[in-house]
Amino acid sequence: MRLIEVEGVEIGIFNCGGELMAIEDRCSHDDGPLAQGEFDAATCTVECPRHGSLFDLRSGRPKTLPAFAPVETFDVRVEDGEIKLEVE
Amino acid sequence: MNPPPETATLDPKLAEREAIKDINQDYKTKFGFNDPETGYVFKAPKGLSRQLVEDISEYKDEPQWMRDFRLKALDHFLARPIPQWGANLNQIDFDNIHYFVRASERAETNWDDVPDDIKNTFDKLGIPEAEQQFLSGVGAQYESEVVYHQVNEKLEAQGVQFMDMDTALREHEDVIREHFATVIPANDNMLAALNSAVWSGGSFVYVPPGVKVDMPLQAYFRINTENMGQFERTLIIADEGSDVHYIEGCTAPVYSTDSLHSAVVELIARPGARIRYTTVQNWSQNVFNLVTKRAIAERDATVEWVDCNLGSKVTMKYPSIYLMGERAHGEILSIAFAGNGQHQDAGGKIIHAAPKTTSSIFAKSISKDGGRSTYRGLLEVAKGASEARSKVVCDALLLDPESRSDTYPTIRIDESDANVGHEASVSKIGEEQLYYLQAHGLDEEEASKMIVNGFIEPVVKELPMEYAVELNRLIELQMEGSIG
């Protein structure tokens, strides 16, 4: 996982078996540092280190409580060997 | 054993007489006895370790994923500090607890096959009799594991699954793996992490679409050993349009040193389903009761927690409901009775996460003889949960100047059209009320009991008759100061 900051927003970038995913580093439950939780490349999920909510990195949706709202996801692409994020 | 008759109910007068006849027996005689441990299959030495967690998993012959889940949960538990925001948990000596005690070989389906001492205990507690008279199924857990489990044949034929969680993991591994710890993850809180590491026993219930379970399912939890830790795990899934009522009761012997009960209960109500979960908690006053209970209610589903806390030394329990689908409905009815030396830190949480959802929290607490009760609750209307409606009422009754009551209600609203009401009251038992009742021929004790009964009546009336009688009787015992 790589953590970057764009205009004050921290974003975690993950490599799910060659496919890159990016989510906001902020759990929708209580603003915990989501991207810094345990990452499972096989299921493409990350577990919030604060209360254990498991998030699908593709959709940003939580698969378990206590979080119930999705987190923001960002389109990622690789161009000329550079990782580019689409941040509105 | 004979299956319970389909429509039998206990004659109300008979039930009341039965309940009242033991009124002067104290907790120690009625519930606080203990059995010899001869015949126990396995008793782990005190203390928690990685080896113990591996041994439990090995002993139960679990799949690798469950062993991994347990070990990861242990790491979470060890990494977390003891919470300081609620009741005092610093007094728990986690090294002085037996985390796994197996009293019999397996969960029997016939009471006659249950070892004699254990069967006698459940006979004394009236469980086999209740099963015959008004229940659809019974699970009886003794120490760490379930010793008896039976479900009405008619329900079984309709596809209702009601079994202990260890058996469910063996027989329905895919279902358990899909749902286990999705409502309460291992790292949700320190005690959920501990439960996840050493869990044993508890119930698994699955009700197929459209099936209405007429009479309640009941689980009874009994601790026998001194310094015991009981960590059951319950998962109830009510499929679309189904309906089930699950009741749990619990007692333990009176010891001079502490035991720990830390359960995790997860409920999933699919669209249009209804789950009612009733607890009559009557642990002896040497038990720390630290339980995590949480439910998901999908579209048009209803979840109701009816939570009665009478026993234990310290209870921390806040059943919660996540209203995840449109028009889902949640209700929490909570009674806490704190006597001498007890702290009941209870309440409830409801989270409106979808439009047109409705809820109520109705909490009543009584403090007596220096007991302390705390209401702690959350009502949240999340963004997107438009047209949510909720009412929160928490009332506390103090019976003497030595007792204490605290209220910590939290309300968070992120939708402008939410309709939320909140009422709270703290009252002392009034001289005038007592005088009025005494003028009508009651003595002071009878008058106090009547006031308390009137105070909790709105919750008691929600219980099935047999349990309402039991609860009234337990409260009378509490009033006499003889519980625990």
What does this structure look like?
The complex is a heterodimer of chains A (88) and B (484). In chain A, the strands form two sheets. Chain A has a five-stranded antiparallel beta sheet, with no helix packed on it. A three-stranded antiparallel beta sheet of chain A has the order 4-5-6, with no helix packed on it. Helices cover 0% and strands 45% of the residues of chain A. Chain A has one domain (2-86): 3-layer Sandwich (Rieske Iron-sulfur Protein). Chain A is built from no helices and eight strands. With 88 residues, chain A is mostly beta strands. Chain B is an alpha/beta fold and 484 residues long. Chain B has one domain. Chain B has helices at residues 12-21, 27-30, 50-59, 64-79, 116-124, 127-134, 153-157, 165-171, 173-179, 190-198, 431-439, 444-460, 465-479; strands at 42-43, 101-102, 137-142, 145-151, 161-164, 203-207, 217-222, 229-230, 233-238, 243-251, 259-261, 264-269, 274-281, 287-297, 302-309, 314-317, 320-323, 329-338, 343-352, 358-367, 372-381, 389-398, 404-413, 419-428. In chain B, strands 5, 6, 8, 9, 11, 12, 14, 16, 17, 19, 21 and 23 form a twelve-stranded mixed beta sheet that branches. Classes of the chains: A mainly beta (88), B alpha/beta (484). At the A-B interface, loops of A face loops of B.
